[in-house]
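Form 7-S
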Amino acid sequence: MLARRDTLGPFERAASGNAEVDDDSALDGDLVHRPSTALNLLGASIRDSSYPGEPAAPRGAPSIVLPHQEASYVRHIALDIGGSLIKLVYFSPDSHESSETTTGHGDRHGDRHGENGRHSGHHHKGGRMHFVKFETARIQDCLDFIQAKGLHRTLLRDGSSREVRVKATGGGAIKFADIFKERLGLVLEREDEIGCSVGGCNFLLRTITHEAFNFEAGQAQFVPCSNVDSELFPYLLVNIGSGVSIIRVDGPGEDEYCRVSGSSVGGGTFWGLCRLLTGRRDFDEMLELSMQGNNANVDMLVGDIYGGRDYSSIGLSATTIACSFGKVVGQDKDLGDYNPADMAMSLCRMVAYNIGQLAYMHAKRYDLKRVFFGGFFIRGHPYTMETISFAIKFWSQGEMSALFLRHEGFLGAVGAFLKVHPMHVPTSRAAAAAAAAEAGGVAAAKDLRVLSDTASSKVRARFVERFSMGAPFAGGEVHGPAIRDMSDRVSWVEKFVAVGQQQQQQEHQQQQQQGLGLAAIRGPRLSAGTGPPTQGLSG
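Output:
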């Protein structure tokens, strides 16, 4: 069995988008991190007792700890509103103040987004990304959760509050926009669905250790993903939601992907048919039910056709499914005569086998060796993962393996979350410096700081936000739209400095021109007084 300690190596510990420090800042024994628009991924890890293939948390996926993130600079949430499920990602700080904060409802919560004290005058470092799901048909549950947690508002340093930014993707970002506005006063900022799924997957694969794994013979085996982009890309992402999207991902860029195919037979197909056949309504209950069944009671197997024998000449064993629900055709039974668990398992395998076959064919078509499966249909369900893994192994004749993700259902929501705070992945030089920093203490950490700073970050590191700002105000007038986040603030300050430098240059040029003008006026007077003596004598 695998060890469950989820830690990061030196490279991941170097992944700090916030480590932008002035050259003359004191280290004081530790590397000091200043806020920036990128997430601080230093030491990011999964902290959860759940394990792939074991029963997962009822609400969502394991949280991701960001121990060095400046909590006061995360003032947004993200939603992926699909046809069947709503996925929510939000950040909560870890601080002594948060545990002592009383909510507006009189209870105490340590993970409240808006009323946990992290937006006070002090900078609090450390927190967690949380992942929660809801049924789309019960959207009011999602709204109640956001309101109860205080996720819809954020406290400013002056004691006032305002609505948080909400990045949203999926069809529901359009369909339910009015509901969020009317109920919570939130404006959904829509983002592209496929782009968010790819961005979320790239984030997890490139920064989180023990995110990807394969699942065979009832056991999970974590698969390390290379930090070198040329070794990770390209890959195939099979996102199984209500339907299926098959995406070829060629690189980490926002435009380096292409949706190559899809299918209408997905998680929604299983959910809908299972509800009709078994009367169950809850998706997790359906998956649990399928684990208790025997699909051989309703599926026609190869052995049923060949008298219990294998079809060895083409490599089919007697237990291979020849036709899903095929055995029902020859039986004189009504729906009530069948075991719901048998039908649930048959449905689960029917959908999973078809998706696995589609995935293999497209991986073969584009010569891709890595195939990752995401989407909430999988839900960490062992039979589903076993079925998809078997399909990939069977069709590839053992040359390929199915790879799964621990946050498979939240790829779109994570990608939307990153639209406000983009991911920063360090270079190989920074990775080497991180390893040296681990062994060399403060001096090596200082070398790491120098290596990780880019030209732009050195400029931006000189500006540290002290107070909340609205739109730029000068000369008694408001100039431009309101400043929304740290990126806008820094950009405006840089422009302000540039304008000041231009004005200084113009004043200097004017002074030079005035000096030249004076010299031109004085010049003739000097020449008249120093002319040849004959000119004065002749006058």
